[in-house]
């Protein structure tokens, strides 16, 4: 399985649900935003050859927090958490803001 395959599959399923049930758009949009953020974070971390533990050290966050964000198991991370991740990855903080 290539990195992020589960996230990509989930995004595709969410798009199908959103098309079939427009009244769920707000909920689905929020879920898609979390999944994209998770996928973007994982891709950025892997592109820099960092483990979750490495990113945790660089960002001052716990490895558990990094993992939960990458698996989209959290609500929207705080702006401070997103800023720390962006700084640790040398990215503009806007990279992790909702799409």
Write the layout of secondary structure elements.
Layout: H1 5-20, H2 25-47, H3 52-59, H4 63-70, H5 79-88
Helix pairs in contact: 1-2, 3-4
What does this structure look like?
The chain has 99 residues and is mostly helical. It has one domain: lambda repressor-like DNA-binding domains (434 Repressor (Amino-terminal Domain)). The chain has helices at residues 5-20, 25-47, 52-59, 63-70, 79-88. α1 runs antiparallel to α2. The longest helix has 23 residues, at 25-47. The protein is elongated.
Q: Can you name the CATH architecture?
A: Orthogonal Bundle
Q: Would you tell me which CATH topology applies? A: 434 Repressor (Amino-terminal Domain)
Overall morphology: elongated
Structural class: mainly alpha
Rounded average pLDDT: 86
Quick gist of this model?
This protein is an all-alpha fold.
Keywords:
mainly alpha; 5 helices; 99 residues; 434 Repressor (Amino-terminal Domain); 66% helix; single chain
């Amino acid at each position: 399985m290539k990195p992020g395959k589960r996230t990509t599959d989930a995004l595709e399923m969410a798009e199908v649900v959103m098309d079939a049930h427009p009244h769920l758009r707000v909920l689905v949009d929020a879920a898609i935003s979390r999944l994209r953020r998770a996928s973007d974070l994982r891709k950025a971390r892997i592109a820099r050859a960092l483990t979750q533990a490495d990113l945790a050290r660089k960002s001052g966050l716990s490895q558990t927090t990094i993992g939960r964000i990458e698996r989209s198991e959290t609500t929207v991370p705080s702006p401070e958490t997103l800023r720390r991740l962006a700084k640790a990855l040398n990215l503009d903080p806007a990279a992790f803001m909702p799409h």
